[in-house]
Design a protein that fits this description.
7 strands, about 20% strand, NADH Oxidase, globular, 6 helices
């Protein structure tokens, strides 16, 4: 796929089918995240790739009820960092931005491979950090559920999730977030 197609095809599907998880797959995704830009090339991102039935089941209590669908993921990636890993210039703190860019590279590579990499904010940070041995001073930013899209999702998802699976949720109009030469409130 060309980059434009990858971006256009990326979706946060919830209905997942299992995939084979190999060291090659994990390294491929990680190497693409590694190529993301970061302030002073600090590369502040850290990832734990959770895979294997027992490891995934051990992590499931860290997911919120709304993300129960992620129990079908073949890989869950914990995305974390801390401020000290990256630039702090006056009041500008970059670690979240830089980690987000690297994670976007990982998500786009997964899409390019025909996979779904669905980012989630619905997790219990303290429980997840304890399960994964992530130090308390780290910020667990997001988790990603990775698998293959299950196109036969009827009966797999809750009723309120079906519409988003069938159709891409409406995107914000460009004039709401793109401004020329100065910001003008549209709210």
């Amino acid at each position: 796929m060309e980059l434009k197609e990858v971006i256009e095809n990326r979706r946060a599907y919830k209905a997942l089918l299992p995939i084979e998880v190999t060291d090659e797959l994990i390294n491929d995704l990680a190497k693409h995240a590694q190529l993301a830009p970061s302030c002073s090339n600090n590369q502040p991102w850290r990832y734990v790739f959770i895979h294997g039935k027992e490891n995934l089941e051990r992590f499931h209590p860290a997911l919120t009820r709304g993300n129960a669908w992620a129990q079908k993921a073949s890989v869950i990636v914990a995305v974390f960092s801390k401020q000290e890993f990256d630039c702090v210039i006056k009041d500008k703190i970059y670690f979240l931005f830089d980690t987000g860019m690297a994670t976007a590279f990982l998500i786009l590579r997964a899409t390019d491979l025909g996979l779904v990499a669905h980012p989630m904010a619905g997790f219990k940070e303290d429980i997840a950090k304890e399960i994964l041995n992530i130090p308390p001073d780290m910020k667990l930013i997001a988790v990603l559920g990775i698998g293959k899209h299950n196109k036969d999702f009827e009966g797999v998802l809750e009723e309120h999730q079906l519409e988003h699976e069938r159709n891409r949720p409406e995107r914000m109009n460009l004039n709401k977030f793109v401004f020329h030469n100065k910001y003008e409130s549209t709210d």
